[in-house]
Amino acid sequence: MRKLLAWRNVPNVGQGTHQIRKGDTPKTMHIVQVKFCGSCNPSIDADVLFEEVIKMSGVSGDVQFTCHDSPEAKLLLVLCACTAGCAALPDFKGYTIKVAGETLDAFYCPREKLSSKIVDKLKGYISEVESNG
Question: How far apart are alpha carbons 100 and 107 in whole angstroms?
């Protein structure tokens, strides 16, 4: 429940409209399911990291994060606060980005670069999806 409290009053988080309009052009909303570990032995603050990712990715308005299982989600973001990476993963068939301490998809990434690297991966995935139709 602690993690859910951090989501209050944060724009672009939750379950809502899956499409937005920029001008008169409808654009697909990319739903990202987020899974946190229990933060029993944290080496990073996953809440702060997630808030940074929201702020950095919310600029384009085409990404929505949800903590709920969502059949529309094509991307799973797993945020583990230590390198054990122990978060129980849901049965998910889409693209996954996993943070475990100072690692991103099993490669070392210094904490100060984690949020921007996550957003780069999100943008890369979205570009790939949009170019493939």
Answer: 9
Does residue 93 come out as left (phi exceeding 0), alpha (psi in the -120 to 50 range) or beta?
Answer: alpha
Q: From first to last of the 133 residues of the chain, give the pLDDT tens digit.
A: 344 434 433 444 444 333 333 343 346 788 899 999 999 999 999 999 999 999 888 655 678 888 878 888 889 999 999 999 988 888 888 899 999 999 999 999 999 999 999 999 998 988 888 788 6
Name residues whose C-beta falls within 8 Å of residue 90's C-beta, 6 or more positions apart in sequence: 33, 35, 69, 76
Question: pTM for this structure?
Answer: 0.79
The beta-strand segments (E) located in 1-133 are: 19-22, 25-28, 30-36, 63-66, 75-80, 95-100, 103-104, 107-108
